[in-house]
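User: Could you go from structure to sequence for me? I need the amino acid at each position, not a summary. Structure tokens:
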């Protein structure tokens, strides 16, 4: 109808234009149109005052003029395109006479009843409100979409809430549950093996780094870092990690090192030790030792080696620490130089006869041992007052010098006596050598003070000898027991208390309540077994739906004890059937019983 009216309007405008062709060119043409916009509901009832404006139909640029549709409480636009009504959208009416230039253009904007959809945001674990509720409003049957609010450390069960407003013009609601955001703590052995298994960390919670240590052949584990190329560890087992993000901890390794030592094996000038690292090639030192009367042949693995295994500057590839011994080839010897090794029993008897040592040739010392009543022979030393031996019978003597070796004795302390020095101080003295074997002080009985806190593991008290001015402090471990006190609705604090010194020991920790619950008259009474904290809340019941051969059964609902529940208005579907009722109740109905319904079947009639 609107299109026909517009065509007629164009024809009438053309006729009118032809009728004024004789108007002087300097006269501006004007064709006023009175525009009226009416606002009504779907029943045709006017719900707001009309809006009126005037446009010049002869000016095309005025055709886009219009008015905005007002917001009316309890109503929304049935057609969103009517939010701004322009002259172009209106029905035009032109008078039949070409001499009457005054037309009208009416338009009716239809409003429909507002439908509300309420969103509640709840902690999925505690079932407590976690964010303010949201109210969505719109036209029945239209679609809505809403993004749940952001809550620190929590993630909503749905990232967006969408659906259609009720076609029956009744308000609806739904609950969005939030759960603590969880992050994955992964471990990467970074070339090794035996990394700990991945674990979860709750947002806002501290995470303790795993104490499990991976292994890698040829490397030593240093700790963990958050990137694979780290050369030093940022974290170690038992450390606390606080960041709220998925994290991979990479093992940090240090390459094992090995020491290559050099033994001149009778010569001098052996190179300094070198360090070889796992998996690398070490170039042996080019330095050569010197030994008078010998030619250096290279390096062997043993002091007795007669042929070399390595030469200075060779590559060494084994991952093992070892000592390389100089291999010597004896030059033509000069006349031998000899030295005398004499023995002194040093208070004993039976010293061996003197021996002759040839220069640069190792002498095997005599195996004969001297004796001394009440003493044990320890070996030989170059000083008569020595208390420890430098050589043993049958041992090697390599020095190119004459020497007297003195027997080193250890007294067996065959008998002793107690000597009192002063007051309560005493000593046990060997009758044989006069050495003090033990000493001590005898005090007591004592008087004691009260126990007082000393450290995290001990308490202390004074004790005073009643026979003199001697006072000392003695220590004992705390005798602790665990104590619990209510801290909050979700936690109690725990600490250790020592009854002996009347002190709190160590740090206070906080733990979640351990509740034991009972239900009385629809109220759930929960009492913490440790601190005695008690909370009471109404008992709840679950009402579930079964489509009974159909589809799209409503979601389960929660009924609070003593509070009437409105059953879901959602209707299931079953091919070739018409939905009749739920448990004999036409939806929506109310449910007043206080009890669980594990399966509410929906009934259909065939058609």
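Assistant: Here is the amino acid at each position, in order:
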């Amino acid at each position: 109808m609107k299109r026909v009216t517009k065509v007629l309007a164009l024809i009438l405008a053309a006729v009118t234009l032809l009728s004024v062709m004789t108007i002087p060119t300097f006269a501006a043409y004007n064709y006023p149109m009175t525009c009226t916009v009416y606002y009504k509901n779907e029943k045709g009832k006017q719900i707001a005052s009309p809006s009126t404006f005037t446009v010049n139909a002869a000016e095309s640029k005025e055709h886009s003029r219009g008015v905005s549709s007002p917001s009316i409480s309890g109503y929304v636009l049935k057609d969103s395109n009517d939010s701004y009504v322009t002259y172009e959208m209106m029905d035009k009416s032109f008078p039949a006479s070409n001499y009457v230039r005054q037309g009208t253009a009416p338009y009716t904007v239809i409003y429909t009843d507002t439908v509300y959809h309420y969103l509640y945001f709840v902690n999925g674990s505690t079932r407590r409100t976690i964010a303010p509720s949201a109210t969505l409003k719109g036209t029945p049957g239209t679609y809505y979409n809403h993004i749940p609010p952001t809550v620190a450390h929590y993630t909503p069960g749905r990232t967006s809430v969408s659906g259609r407003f009720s076609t029956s013009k009744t308000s609806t609601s739904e609950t969005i549950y939030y759960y603590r955001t969880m992050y994955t703590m992964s471990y990467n052995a970074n070339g090794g093996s035996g990394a700990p298994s991945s674990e979860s960390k709750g947002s806002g919670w501290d995470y303790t780094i795993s104490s499990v240590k991976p292994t890698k052949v040829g490397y030593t584990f240093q700790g963990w870092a958050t990137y694979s190329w780290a050369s030093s560890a940022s974290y170690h087992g038992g450390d606390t990690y606080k960041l709220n993000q998925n994290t991979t901890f990479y093992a940090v390794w240090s390459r094992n090192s090995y020491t290559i030592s050099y033994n001149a094996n009778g010569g001098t000038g052996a190179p300094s030790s070198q360090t070889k690292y796992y998996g690398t090639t070490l170039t042996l030192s080019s330095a050569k030792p010197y030994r008078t009367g010998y030619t250096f042949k290279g390096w062997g693995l043993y002091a007795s080696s007669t042929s070399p295994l390595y030469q200075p500057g060779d590559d060494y590839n084994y991952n093992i620490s070892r000592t390389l011994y100089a291999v010597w080839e004896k030059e033509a010897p000069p006349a031998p130089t000899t030295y005398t090794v004499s023995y002194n029993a040093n208070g004993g008897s039976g010293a061996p006869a003197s021996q002759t040592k040839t220069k640069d040739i190792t002498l095997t010392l005599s195996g004969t041992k001297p004796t001394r009543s009440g003493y044990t022979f320890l070996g030989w030393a170059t000083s008569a007052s020595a208390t420890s031996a430098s050589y043993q019978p049958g041992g090697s003597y390599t020095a190119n010098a004459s020497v007297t070796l003195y027997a080193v004795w250890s007294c067996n302390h065959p008998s002793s006596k107690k000597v009192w020095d002063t007051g309560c101080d005493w000593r046990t003295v060997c009758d044989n050598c006069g050495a003090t074997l033990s000493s001590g002080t005898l005090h007591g009985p004592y008087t004691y003070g009260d126990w007082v806190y000393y450290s995290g593991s001990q308490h202390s008290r004074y004790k005073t000898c009643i026979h003199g001015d001697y006072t000392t402090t003695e220590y004992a471990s705390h005798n602790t027991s665990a104590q619990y006190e209510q801290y909050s609705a979700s936690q109690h604090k725990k600490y250790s208390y020592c009854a002996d010194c009347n002190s709190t020991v160590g740090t206070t920790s906080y733990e979640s309540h351990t509740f034991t619950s009972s239900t009385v008259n629809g109220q759930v009474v929960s009492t913490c077994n440790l601190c005695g904290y008690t909370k009471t809340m109404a008992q709840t019941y679950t009402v579930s739906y079964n489509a009974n051969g159909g589809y799209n059964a409503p979601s389960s609902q929660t009924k609070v004890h003593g509070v009437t529940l409105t059953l879901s208005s959602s209707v299931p579907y079953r091919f070739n059937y018409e939905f009749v009722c739920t448990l004999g109740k036409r939806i929506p109905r109310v449910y007043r019983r206080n009890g669980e319904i594990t399966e509410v079947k929906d009934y259909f009639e065939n058609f």
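One structural detail worth keeping in mind: Confidence is low (pLDDT under 50) at residues 1-27.
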